[in-house]
UniProtKB/TrEMBL annotation:
Keyword annotations: Hydrolase
Organism: Nocardioides jejuensis
Protein name in UniProt: PaaI family thioesterase
GO terms, molecular function: fatty acyl-CoA hydrolase activity
Family designation: Belongs to the thioesterase PaaI family.
Key word Electron transport present: no
Thioesterase domain: residues covered: 57-136
Classification via Pfam families: 4HBT
Amino acid sequence: MTSLAEMTGLEQLRLFAGIDTSTIPNIGGLLGMKIELIDEGRVSFALTTRPDFANPMGNVHGGICATLLDSVMGCAVHTTLGPGESYATLELKVNYTGNVTTDGQRLTATGEIIHVGGRVATAEGRVVDERGRLVAHGTTTCIVNR
């Protein structure tokens, strides 16, 4: 069996997609993220809103969309890594375009690579609600450790 250190980032994410991670502490499990797509340079995750995502005004807290975006954009970068390589988010920019209710709405986030260089990678992402309405979008800059 190949170890994680010997696998590419794309192979690692596809492996994780096939494993029941509900018992492993992680942000995706905490928020109930479901993997929709893992492809080279493109990743989609979805979640369903719930009352404990609320901000003081009763809508979904902006941190939920920010976390979705950070996850899909970072994982888009992850798909481009070679064996033994890693990355970390250096910068995250999020724009909100609408509020989201906490009553079980499905949000889908997609992240795509813009550029992968020797040490820096950039990606962009979008979050849409179940009607396809854009609710947030963003960009990230990641440092790649080769």
